[in-house]
Specification:
glycoprotein; Immunoglobulin-like; 2 domains; six-stranded antiparallel β-sheet; disulfide bond; alpha-galactosidase activity; single chain; alpha/beta; 14 helices; disordered N terminus; TIM Barrel; hydrolase; transmembrane
């Protein structure tokens, strides 16, 4: 799709660590879930820079977020993309059909902004729509696929999100493929984020995931996230309800995308922020933040920069975790990750509360029956790490035993269970 010299689709299966990983599009991009910052959820389509100078979609906003990505440690933690969403364009193309930014809000042009972002060690992302108009009513791509692909390459774009408003739901797939081919011919590597599954799902159409993997590096499966815990829960429910058909298509180079992380905005408490982060980590979802980085509290910043959690999210196997059981409104999510100990993979496990009690709720689970940990006779136990609190000493559990944790209302706890064998277990 992106690099004409690497236009190979692997449709076979590769067995890694006793887990089947299916590889599709191989353009060398997005081998780990993409990480970065995106404007839409927090800044929407605010375009009045006189009334809202610090919030309007503008060159100044993206430069400011770029600088904060660097100064606040997000770049060094692995967040690498700065992405413009809708509402950056002028109302019309120029006389040659070339897209133009709004000249008042982007006075130096998009190439200038891309260069500014690149000079600070980050990558630049942009937005367009496969239809006649973007969702906010700006010029769409119909009739200009080739021209737009070359324009984005000339500007130095590294990531592109293509939306699906004002397009025929059944015909849009061919247009997504066509645009991907034009991007490929430019010779510039551009991470391709598609949206057609979200539009098809709403119309009751099951997307062709094999075709998605051949075309896109990531794709939105469902609707836009809103700034509320309810929205996070609804999106999470979509992913758990349909996990049997979407999980197999998630992996290096091609990711299911539940939308942005909204930690640091108005709608989530601290515990609800932990809940979203825990589920997105288990799902191996892209970590694209959408907030005002200047106003993130120290507690939320600590969550977003948590090295142990980022390491789990970025696990090289790229396996999407699943909801394995619900006990008294406590969801148990599990994801196999590296390292492998003997023949067994480590497991990341989240306990996610859907309760609204006035106090934390304790749940006790059997490691094999409830959580599905290995019943191999070689495993003597597990070393359990609390990923939200590195100060807590690791806990040693014998295989076949129970584990108890207490979760705050609408919050989550997140752990890493590392298998232990023989004398390795006894020595701790």
């Amino acid at each position: 799709m992106v690099n004409p010299k690497i236009d190979i689709v692997l449709l076979g299966t590769i067995l890694v660590c006793s887990v089947v990983l299916v590889y599709g599009l191989d353009n060398g991009l997005a081998r780990r879930p993409p990480m970065g910052w995106m404007s839409w959820e927090r800044y929407r389509c605010i375009t009045d820079c006189k009334k809202y100078p610090d919030e309007c979609i503008s060159e100044a906003l993206f430069k400011r977020m770029t600088d904060l990505m660097v100064s606040e440690g997000y770049r060094d933690a692995g967040y690498e993309y700065v992405n413009i969403d809708d509402c950056w364009m002028a109302d019309e193309r120029d006389e040659d059909g070339v897209l133009q930014p709004n000249k008042e809000r982007f006075p130096n042009g998009i190439k200038h902004l891309a260069d500014y972002i690149h000079e600070r060690g980050l990558k630049f992302g942009i937005y367009q729509d496969i239809g006649t108009k973007t969702c906010a009513g700006y010029p769409g791509m119909v009739g200009y696929f080739k021209l737009d692909a070359q324009t984005f390459a000339d500007w130095g774009v590294d990531f592109i999100k293509i939306d699906g408003c004002y397009a025929d739901v059944e015909l849009m797939v061919n247009d997504y493929i066509k645009f991907g081919e034009y991007m490929n011919r430019t010779g510039r590597p551009i991470l391709y984020s598609c949206s057609w599954p979200a539009y098809q799902e709403y119309d009751g159409i099951i997307p062709d995931y094999d075709q998605l993997k051949e075309t896109c590096n990531m794709w939105r499966n469902w609707g836009d996230i809103e700034d509320s815990h309810q929205s996070v829960v609804e999106i999470t429910k979509y992913f758990s309800d349909h996990q049997s058909r979407i999980v197999p298509h998630h992996g290096p180079g091609h990711w299911n995308d539940p939308d942005t992380l909204i930690l640091g905005n108005y709608g989530l408490s601290y515990d609800q922020s932990k809940s979203q982060l825990a589920v997105w980590t288990i799902m191996g979802a892209p970590f694209l933040i959408s907030n005002d980085l200047a106003k993130v509290t120290p507690e939320i910043k600590e969550l977003l920069l948590n090295k142990a959690i980022i390491k789990v999210n970025q696990d090289p196997l790229g396996i999407q975790g699943r909801l394995v059981k619900t006990i008294n409104k406590i969801e148990i999510w599990k994801r196999p990750i590296m390292p492998r100990v003997g023949h067994e993979l480590t497991q990341a496990i989240a306990f996610v509360s859907r309760r609204a009690d006035g106090a934390p709720y304790a749940v006790q689970v059997k490691l094999q029956e409830d959580v599905g940990l290995s019943n191999s006779t070689n495993i003597k136990g597990y070393k359990v790490y609390d990923l939200f609190d590195a100060k807590v000493a690791p806990l040693l559990l014998r295989a076949g035993s129970s584990f108890e944790t207490r979760i705050n209302p609408s919050g989550a706890n997140l752990f890493r269970f590392v298998p232990q064998f023989g004398t390795d277990f006894i020595s701790f």
